[in-house]
Amino acid sequence: MGELAVELRDVVKEFSDSEQIREVVAAVNHVSLQIHDGEFFSLLGPSGCGKTTSLRMIAGFELPTSGDVLIQGKPMGRTPPFQRPVNTVFQNYALFPHMTIGQNVAFGLEMKGVPKAEIGPRVQEALAMVRLPGYDKRKPRQLSGGQQQRVALARALVNRPAVLLLDEPLGALDLKLRKEMQLELKTLQREVGITFIYVTHDQEEALTMSDRIAVMNRGKVLQVGNSSDIYETPNCRFVADFIGEMNFIKGIIQAQAGRSATVGLDGGLTVHARCEQSIAAGTEISVAVRPEKMNIDSSAKMDNEFQGRVVSIVYIGTDTHYGIRLAGDQLVRVREQNNTPGSRPLASEGAEVKVSFAAEAARVLTA
Amino acid sequence: MLKRLREHKSLQGTLLVSPALLWMIALLIIPLILVVITSFGQRDPDGNVIYGFSFDNYVRLTGTTDTCQNLGDYLNGAWQMIIGSEARTCFDPLYVQILWRSVLIAIETTALVIVMGYPLAYFVARAPIKRRSTLLFLILIPLWTNFVIRVYAWIRILRAFDILYTPGAVLIGMIYEFLPFMILPMYTSLEKIDPSLYEASADLGANSLRTFLRVTLPLSMPGVVAGTILVFVPVMGTFVVSDILGGKQFVLIGNLIQSQFLSARDPTFGSAASILLMVMTLIVMIFYTRKFGFGEEVIVG
After folding, report:
1. Residue-wise pLDDT tens digits, A151-201
2. Where in chain B is the domain with CATH 1.10.3720.10?
3. Which top CATH class is A4-240?
């Protein structure tokens, strides 16, 4: 993990709308990233956040307006895509429709000038790796979406690139196949040991597969960390909201002692929460608590305990979601696991309940 | 009646096809049969057709003259012509030359139109979507003016360069006339190519030239083939361009047919020439489409 596979140094990419030259949009705005050798690294964010543009700059399809892209320590400058040691798996696979599967997979090797005698076995090996042996004579249109996806993967991996770039490769597949491919991709990545840079807008997908994730929004990287960092300790409201479910409770800082803060809520309530930065008393903030970290009518003594009324109950099988209105009119969602045989709802609609959670589970987030 | 129609798909098909079919039978199939019949007839001194069954008109087209005794004489005469000997016995090169010239100019026109049209079609296909329709519009604008007027306009231009009434003048006129018919089908197939295929090709290590040869060109072949058919066939038969820009010496098979029907008043020989033109075009097209298909193959997607 010592070596850097890819590094972005203060990269900016501006697109000027060709119709109105004056309007310049920064798709990527001063992004710096360090991606280690052998890592499964995800760029996660909503559409238009700059994740695909960042990937395309690594591939060489776009050139940065300013800043540097380095691959294996070498600045890429204006190096065209065909001279970069990376390969891409495209969102729509981009298989050559006029070539057979075998010709598609062999394309990169032929372009590199690999001896003919070597190409055949390597193509077979790559097709076997993606579990499509014997498909080399078929045309792409004869294959299903999942199979085409695997061919695209084989076509890229057969070249043994330093870095494999994947642009929402599972986006077009149905849910079940997608879950299967997620695990397959992860296993494959471990086997081949190639650095994967994976672009997705699906937070679950990113959490499942990645060694590290960069969460992006509006052209900026907000947080970089492994799955649990991102989920457990989001550093801003956007990340907290984008990854998983989150309750945000508005409040005002009353006092702060180290990393622990006391926050005043509407209705005269106070809540104890973790606070990573020092914030002046009187500042308006949000307290973020995950629904599954809250408990209903728990006998354990917690730092934060509130009375509330159940306003909605949604049973979803593994869990039951409760909508609870607290005394200060704050609406929170609480998630209770149905982990006992024949689980029954903990409360009925309209019931008065106690909601409790640890101060460690609550985080103060500005903005 | 209506109920039967609703239930029978084949009857619906017949009904849908029949207007065009009747039109084709009345105005294409029947006249064509008449042309075939006429071509085997003879012209009497007054210019009327005497129907019969004689290959004389076809024999005349091959350049065989009265002095021919057998096939050997004919081939010898043809050979004398080819090596440029003046001792032309038993061979009249006039019609063979016309045929050869027609085929040659059709091939030249098609080839040059492909070479000139392809980059343009590519440029339009890769232009931003909003600009494409404007560019296509510009390509089509010349077609709004009458064909004959446009060719007449070339007289002044070509005279200024002192090349009027030369084979080159006809070639220029043909290219000008048929370029849009090549650009449009080529544009259609180029435009259908998913741009991510170019990126995939570059990503896999192909430079621009190799991407063109391995991806762009094969995927745009249907358009090139369709354009070739749209250009080659009409150029083979056209007579207006050569008539106006080629002068009296530059006769194509189209001009020959026209003059036989109008000024020479020999519809039998004109018919034979027409049939020969059709057969030759058919042979070239069969040969060509065997190799490249009809340009109908949808290989994208």
Report:
1. 999 999 999 999 999 999 998 888 888 888 899 899 999 999 999 999 999
2. 95-292
3. alpha beta
Task: State pLDDT tens for residues B254-279.
Answer: 999 999 998 888 999 999 999 999 99
Closest CA to A213 of A242, A173, A171: A242
Contacts of A21 in chain B (CB under 8 A): none
Sign of the Cα torsion B115, B119, B120, B124 reads: positive
Residue A244: count other Cβ atoms within 10 Å of its Cβ: 16
B215 touches chain A (CB under 8 A): yes
Whether A44 and A241 have beta carbons less than 8 Å apart is answered as no
- For chain A, give every domain's residue range: 4-240, 245-365
Prediction pTM value: 0.82
Q: Which CATH number fits domain B95-292: 3.50.50.60, 1.10.10.10, 1.10.3720.10, 2.160.10.10?
A: 1.10.3720.10
Average pLDDT, chain B: 88
Cβ–Cβ pairs < 8 A, chains A and B = 66
Class of domain A245-365: mainly beta
Alpha-carbon distance B192 to nearest alpha carbon in chain A (angstroms): 12
Q: What angle do CA B101, B106, B112 make, to 5 degrees?
A: 120
Q: Tell me the nearest-neighbour CA distance from B203 into chain A, angstroms.
A: 5
**Eight-state DSSP code of residue A359:** G
Instruction: Say if B207 is an interface residue toward chain A (CB within 8 Å).
Output: yes
Asked if the Cβ–Cβ distance from B205 to A111 is below 8 Å, we say yes
Q: How many CB atoms lie within 10 A of CB A269?
A: 17
- Contact with chain A for residue B197, Cβ under 8 A: yes
Closest CA to A197 of A21, A360, A34, A29: A34
How many angstroms separate the CA of residue B193 from the nearest CA in chain A? 10
Cβ <8 Å between B207 and A80? yes
